[in-house]
């Protein structure tokens, strides 16, 4: 009887230690706007859908919206932004990390910044300072931390620029536009996002 009680006490003590560590970790992690983190799975259209995973992983979804009248793509962390602009919801590009991400999948050295071109309405996501000194571009802030290229479950985001219209398009599916076409110029890999949680 004493062995059972001591084993039970040891398990109970371990349980309280784990709960204590878990609550401390949750205090240090910034979550997506709706306090949910996400996992991604491919569906038939090669876009991503969202499913729940534990809240303390630091994954923030990047939502994709499109306005066919403007031929404009919008990439945002806030689904309400796209809805308020009456853009069509196209799903999730992948996830980026926040400044307190606990995943080793993100690199604190690679921040993705969103820029807005006040002259033509284009939005650009970039890790570089390519438009820092261009007065047409307005820095809208850091979108999040890019995923590391060498981490399992992370995918490249392919960057395209419209040939006729000032518009950038980002996708994790290279087969969607490949090396470009008559409407889109392929500009290479822009950054990496998390598309699968192991």
TrEMBL record:
<protein>
    <recommendedName>
        <fullName>DUF5648 domain-containing protein</fullName>
    </recommendedName>
</protein>
<feature type="domain" description="DUF5648">
    <location>
        <begin position="109"/>
        <end position="193"/>
    </location>
</feature>
<feature type="domain" description="DUF5648">
    <location>
        <begin position="52"/>
        <end position="104"/>
    </location>
</feature>
<dbReference type="InterPro" id="IPR043708">
    <property type="entry name" value="DUF5648"/>
</dbReference>
<keyword id="KW-0732">Signal</keyword>
<dbReference type="Pfam" id="PF18885">
    <property type="entry name" value="DUF5648"/>
</dbReference>
<feature type="signal peptide">
    <location>
        <begin position="1"/>
        <end position="25"/>
    </location>
</feature>
């Amino acid at each position: 009887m004493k062995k059972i009680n001591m084993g039970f006490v040891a398990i109970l003590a371990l349980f309280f230690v784990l709960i204590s560590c878990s609550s401390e970790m949750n205090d240090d992690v910034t979550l997506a706007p709706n306090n949910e983190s996400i996992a991604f799975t491919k569906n038939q259209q090669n876009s991503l859908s969202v499913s729940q995973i534990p809240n303390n992983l630091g994954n923030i979804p990047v939502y994709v919206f499109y306005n066919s009248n403007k031929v404009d793509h919008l990439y945002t962390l806030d689904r309400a932004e796209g809805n308020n602009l009456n853009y069509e919801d196209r799903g999730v590009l992948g996830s980026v990390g926040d400044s307190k991400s606990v995943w080793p999948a993100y690199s604190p050295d690679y921040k993705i910044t969103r820029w807005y071109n006040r002259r033509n309405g284009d939005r650009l996501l970039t890790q570089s300072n390519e438009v820092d000194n261009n007065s047409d571009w307005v820095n809208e802030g850091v979108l999040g931390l890019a995923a590391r290229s060498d981490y399992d479950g992370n995918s490249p985001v392919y960057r395209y620029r419209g040939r006729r219209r000032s518009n950038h398009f980002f996708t994790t599916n290279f087969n969607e536009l490949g090396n470009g076409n008559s409407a889109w110029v392929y500009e290479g890999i822009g950054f990496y996002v998390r598309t699968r949680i192991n």
